[in-house]
Amino acid sequence: MKAFVMDRYGRSDVVHAGEMPEPELGAEDVLVRIHAASINPLDLKIRSGALKLVLPYRLPLILGNDMAGVVQRVGARVRQFKVGDEVYARPRQERIGTFAELIAVHEDALALKPRTLTMEQAASIPLVGLTGWQALVEKAGLQQGQKVLIHAGSGGVGTFAIQLAKHLGAYVATTASAANRDLVKGLGADVVIDYKQTDFATVLHDYDVVLDTHGGDTLMKSVRVLKPGGRLISISGPPDPAFATASGAPWFVRAAMGMLSYRIRALARRHQVGYAFLFMRADGGQLRRIAELIDAGAIRPVVDRVFPFASTLAALDYVDTGRAKGKVVLKMPA
């Protein structure tokens, strides 16, 4: 099958088109012919080797972390899906590889795609949708009337998380450029901070939750926005010991993660707030709930551009510019 593969870590020149064996199908797996896949900053981090400590992949590796397509075959113990079903998924982390014609996905990571979406739109949802759900619903327990700051509102995670937070009844602030103000307001943001003109930490106070997508100085300053008892959840900050333990990392990796996150955890304690690192996991059940929200009109996909599959390298470079609004999608040939 055709796929885009990386043979070593680096930048754009390490990924190339090639022929790979069709995936083997386990008893609880579903073989999906991919119609569309989307690109995420996670793909760039994997490509560069920035996540080798957390994700020690064996190379060569097919990139790609979410997709939509049609079921071709099912394993002997699969009960939830049948041939011909239109599905979408974020595969389990150890089984990524959606920049390809076919993929075998464990049925627990799979869900029927939202009926109201095209394949390209559906492929834009899984990773950012699960990230938003697990941050705001699972970790934060966001409630009606609470205040949440979502950084980078015009990005893939931001555009989804704003809509989810509004559906949950929260008051939503976000950071975005002036050029993207109308976009994020249209998604439901109550307050938009132009990060080029205003320091968010000087104007926002007494928030219940912050969803950080930047790390670095943005992460550290976000502590000041929260009220005592608030929650700071980051997908870009340093992993915390709880994540290290849950991931089953060896002791020296757990120790390294503890040291890396010591500064932000200590700062959070001084401000009487909680800090948690989130590395989103595959979950077909949550994707089913997200599909229900989409089909009910509560959440809509935001797709910046659709590239043909043959232009995967150009699409990766475009995402690498940081200028995409929402998601960038790859469309497989008919």
Automatic annotation (TrEMBL):
What PROSITE patterns is this protein classified in? QOR_ZETA_CRYSTAL
Can you tell me which residues the record assigns to a coiled coil? Answer: none
UniProt keyword Oxidoreductase, yes or no: yes
An example Pfam family from this entry, by short name, is ADH_zinc_N_2
Q: What CDD domains does the record tag this protein with?
A: MDR_like_2
Q: Which GO terms describe its molecular function?
A: oxidoreductase activity; zinc ion binding
Q: Which residues form the Enoyl reductase (ER) domain?
A: 10-330
Oxidoreductase in keyword set:
yes
Q: Which UniProt keywords apply?
A: Oxidoreductase
Its name, as the record gives it, is NADP-dependent oxidoreductase
Phylogenetic placement of the source organism: Bacteria, Pseudomonadati, Pseudomonadota, Betaproteobacteria, Burkholderiales
